[in-house]
Specification:
The chain is α+β, with helices and mostly antiparallel strands. It has 2 helices and 11 strands; from the N terminus they run E-E-E-E-E-E-E-E-E-E-H-H-E. Strand 1 and strand 2 form a beta hairpin. The longest helix has 14 residues.
Length: about 140
């Protein structure tokens, strides 16, 4: 992890600069950041970025930014191939979420042991809230 005085931060839980999604896996519940943007750069595989009811499948070399206030999540739609991406947040407020989540995953025995509700509770500490679609 590199600190730039709060202007930009990248999260590096496993490999220094990237994160990987297993084939066919979902990401966190759809959510909205109130104080930072989040940008995804796809390194390999396909990452599906969803905002509200729309989604885009991003190939290697693709870059997508979720601005402040825009609902989003990510997943790997490919049933056979891992997807790898770099994630940056600006400013770096949200890095605490990644640290808290990594600690919880280590304590509980893995990413699949953390419930979506627990994930959302951690997000709430960092100006992030769940997305509720209109009319639901």
């Amino acid at each position: 992890m590199q600190n730039s005085g709060g202007r930009l931060e990248h999260w590096a839980p496993d490999r220094g600069h990237v994160d990987s999604l297993p084939p066919g896996s979902d990401g966190p519940p759809q959510h909205i950041h109130r104080k930072h943007t989040e940008t995804f750069y796809v390194v390999s595989g396909t990452v599906r970025l969803t905002s509200g009811s729309e989604h885009v499948d991003v190939s290697p070399g693709g870059l997508v930014t979720a601005p402040i206030g825009v609902p989003h999540t990510f997943s790997n739609p490919d049933p056979d191939q891992w997807a790898t991406f770099a994630c940056t947040v600006a400013p770096d407020l949200y890095i605490g979420y990644f640290r808290d989540l990594a600690a919880l995953r280590a304590e509980s025995g893995g990413a699949d042991k953390v419930s979506p509700n627990t994930d959302l509770q951690i997000m709430a500490r960092y100006a992030t809230e769940p997305y509720t679609p209109p009319g639901s």
